[in-house]
Design goal:
Layout: E1 23-27, H1 32-43, E2 47-54, H2 61-72, E3 77-82, H3 85-89, H4 119-134, E4 138-140, H5 156-168, H6 171-174, E5 180-182, H7 190-200, H8 224-236
Parallel strand pairs: 1-2, 1-4, 2-3, 4-5
């Protein structure tokens, strides 16, 4: 619902999309979006298996945030899976130290150099494995198709295609037990996400979004992710305690 000022009014928590007790795998990066998903499914009462990845990213501080969040929400399990191949492949400013992270250039590139080739494809593939071994029926990812950097693996069409992969390429799918890909924030603006996080009682200061943090993990305030986060908090009328601007 939108008020006179054109902002979405989030005054209640969205209801669970499926009835009954559920177990899910949450892709938990430690950022604002994934943390909001974690808070949301926890409020639904779902059993959570959190999954994070150490892929040689320059912003490895996010893994510390993910661990803190996993403890805060008392998840059933939290795995941090190393994927060293990303660093070996290069081609992204997030994994190749020889490529500079763009600053103050939000929207300047159609697909920016911070895009990590096949990242969400591999993340979701691991999530499928965890879901099958843990008995989870839902995979929750914090992708967003409104205020985002333009990565192709954050778009609805990609998630729809991967849902078909989950059905065709798993034992669960072959036996008629669906593994559902949930992206509850897909149609939310960053401001909407900030508002939902507040309604859920999420301590956003525990999250980190920066692609190029300083030595102490402080955000640079100028990369795409920092600018999108700042935009969201400003439009939501909230103060971001983690802002580096």
């Amino acid at each position: 619902m939108r008020g006179r000022e054109g902002k979405r009014k989030i005054s209640s928590i969205p209801g669970a999309p499926a009835r009954g007790a559920r177990a899910c795998v949450v892709l938990l990066s430690g950022g604002l979006d994934s943390a909001t998903c974690l808070a949301l499914v926890s409020r639904w009462g779902w059993t959570v298996h959190a999954l994070s990845f150490d892929y040689g990213q320059r912003h490895r501080v996010e893994l510390s945030a993910a661990r803190v969040l996993a403890r805060r929400y008392r998840v059933a399990s939290h795995r941090v899976i190393p994927i060293p191949a990303f660093g070996a492949l290069g081609g992204s400013a997030l994994t190749d130290r020889g490529i500079r992270v763009p600053k103050s250039a939000l929207g300047a590139e159609k697909i920016p150099v911070t895009y990590v080739p096949a990242r969400n494809t591999l993340f979701l593939a691991f999530a499928l494995g965890v879901a099958e071994t843990s008995g989870a029926t839902e995979i929750v990812i914090g992708t967003n198709a409104l205020d985002y950097s333009g990565y192709p693996d954050c778009r609805p069409a990609f998630l729809q295609a991967f849902a078909r992969v989950a059905k065709l390429g798993t034992k669960a799918g072959a036996e008629g037990r669906s593994l559902v890909i949930r992206a509850p924030l897909l149609r939310f603006s960053k401001a909407d996400i900030v508002r939902l996080a507040r309604v859920l009682g999420l301590d956003t200061s525990l999250t980190t979004s920066c692609y190029d943090p300083g030595r102490k993990g402080l955000p640079c305030g100028l990369c795409d992710s920092c600018l999108l986060r700042a935009k969201g908090f400003a439009e939501a009328g909230e103060v971001d305690a983690k802002s580096g601007v």
